[in-house]
Specification:
about 375 residues, mainly beta, 13-stranded antiparallel beta sheet, single chain, 9-stranded antiparallel beta sheet, AttH-like fold
Length: about 375
Amino acid sequence: MIVFTKAGLAISVASVVLNSFVRATSFDGQYLQPNSTNDAVEWWWGSAVGTPESAGTPGPVLQFLFYQGYSILVDSDHSSLPEYYFTINGFFPNGSDFSVTVPATSGNIIEGAGNVVTGTWGEVGSFQTSHDLKTMYVSFNAPDAPYGISGTMHFTSNRANHFGCNVTDSPYFDEFMPPPSQALTEAEQILFTQLGWAVSIPGGTVDVDVTINGTRLQFSGNGYHDQNWMPLALNEFVSSWYFGFAEIGPYTLSYVSVTPVNSSIAFNTGYLATDQAVLQNQCSVNGTKITDISIIQPKGEMTGAQGTVAPSTWTLSYIIEDGTEFEFEMVPTAANPNLNIYQRWTGSITGGKKGDESYEGVATFEWLNPGLNVYSSSA
């Protein structure tokens, strides 16, 4: 991830960016038109997480982000920066990490029959989702210095694609806005009405075969792919963003918890599924209901990125509509990226339905912290 930080760009530019909406006809298609004249950003993210070869090591892991625009911006004038690029982060099986950022001359999305989407980032990277969103193929082609990345990833989904909030027709969260009697700030309005999220591959398998600076990384693991877009860089309207996903025993799960800038609102989404059913796919504001909710709670303390304090464990709770409870605990092993504004951990996850069998697995969970919030377990 390329990070450019600066506070104070005027949120009112959102009204200008709205002129660039292009509502995708394919689920994983183009929803905005980010370019050098606006602050919009759209990205396609994917992750492969393998089983660690030994205790205390996070690898193997490979995660990518194909970007149009910048999720964190230093300046409203970013015309000198590459508009299109992709990032690679992960771990080799021995636990050593790698990070690669590759600029591209273009970032084109072409929508085909059904839900076929082909993304082409110049000559250095590409991806394609199938018409039924059951498979995704990713290719990297920048083997020479200073990038040193080439190879492929092949995803096979085991769950149906979904938007958040248990809806089938909208990638936005406006149905779950607080009532009109509660006046919302512009940052809160952007969160509910203009931040989009589409999950094409909630879980499944992925085969990885890449070479990074001369070292081959080949493994099969758990796969995940989603897409986000928004009319402004995240630091303009988001203060804190928790996200995570895992496959553990019979469960596929993910969550998001977002707090806007200068806001007390914590907006949560939670997804929990098995082969038999989607147990939950909900959206809610913290404190507004007692069932059909998900809650992510950071706990404990450890040394985080750049001398900061970070949580040493995370407890993820789901209470589905009939009151049945599921609980999982995640413990970080290592982080990459590992910045005070963005920490993405790979670690262990244990848990399941309360009172039933407990399972073990590997999870990815992150804290995107544009507001540079200070964490304390006693807060």
